[in-house]
Amino acid sequence: MKVGCIGLGDIAQKAYLPVLGTLPEVELHLQTRTPATLNRVADGLHLPPGQRHADLDALLAQGLDAAFVHAPTAVHPEIVTRLLEAGVPTYVDKPLAYELADSERMVELAEQRNVSLAVGFNRRYAPGYAQCAEHPRELIVMQKNRVGLPEEPRTMILDDFIHVVDTLRFLVPGQIDDVTVRARVRDGLLHHVVLQLAGDGFTALGVMNRLSGSSEEILEVSGQDTKRQVVNLAETIDHKGQPTVRRRGDWVPVARQRGIEQAVLAFLDAAHAGKVLSARDALATHELCERVVRAVRNPAAA
């Protein structure tokens, strides 16, 4: 199948192309507006000139069976709209867009055209996190922290905190009845944000501190006197009396550990089978992120 990859930045080169470039059934086509990057990446994958494209029109002319969008978020609406209008099943890095109205338009267009639209929430496929969905989940706590990176609220929440929001939504065991947001903003920059989701019998807390002194990601789910902890997506610790530690195997690729390989294969399998994937659930995560943005900017109205 002919698969396009649009945008050849860090995430594409580190996470997605190492998977796509090894699939024998995939004829990979690359597109970026930067010639030096296009040729360097394509050379590394041993792609012929006919699979290197400087603009989207040339890529679409290949008759794609699927496409991955790893371009900057600001241009997602333009690129994804073109792909969906051409009937190409599309996988796009989170977020769909910075503005909720743009995300809604893309999801509605995909439904109108009956074309797959998938959003790259890879943590749903990460083995450590997927296994947590089988654990008692009365209390869920997720931290995703950084060093020295306070940022404008909308950008930080939609580009990074969205992973925390989506993981909590994925793991909560029932309907969310209450949403609470707390944050610290100084000089227009978001230092930290805390999201609490609650429902019948469960509470979920999502935390991001951009001045934490540590780059880390820790997920804990607990209930019925047991706890499971996943550290940096690589180490799983089960607590029931004595802790039991399971670490990523030495030969397990990072893309598999982080769920990227599984997400790619699930999307391509659906495209190959003609199964249409809906982005409605992903849109619900964007809607919740918009609620967080508004609460951070106007705490009195939260």
Gross morphology: globular
The termini sit apart by 48 Å
Q: Helix-strand pattern, N to C?
A: EHEHEHEHEHEHEHEEEEEEEHHH
Mean pLDDT: 95
Low-confidence stretches: none
Major sheet attributes: 8 strands, mixed
Q: Percentage of helical residues?
A: 25-40%
Query: Which class of secondary structure composition applies to the elements?
Result: alpha/beta
Oligomer: single chain
| Helical segment count | 10
Can you count the beta strands? 14
Q: What proportion strand?
A: 25-35%
Structural Rg: 20 Å
Strand order of the biggest β-sheet: 8-9-10-7-11-12-13-14
Written overview of the protein:
By secondary structure, the protein is of the alpha/beta class. Helix content is 37%, strand content 27%. The chain is built from ten helices and 14 strands. The strands form two sheets. Strands 8-9-10-7-11-12-13-14 form an eight-stranded mixed beta sheet. Helix 4 packs parallel to helix 5, helix 5 runs antiparallel to helix 10 and helix 7 crosses helix 10. The longest helix has 19 residues. It is globular and about 55 Å long. The termini are far apart. The model has no long low-confidence stretch (mean pLDDT 95). This is Gfo/Idh/MocA family protein. InterPro entries: Gfo/Idh/MocA-like_OxRdtase_N (IPR000683), Gfo/Idh/MocA_oxidoreduct (IPR051317), NAD(P)-bd_dom_sf (IPR036291), YceM-like_C (IPR048477).
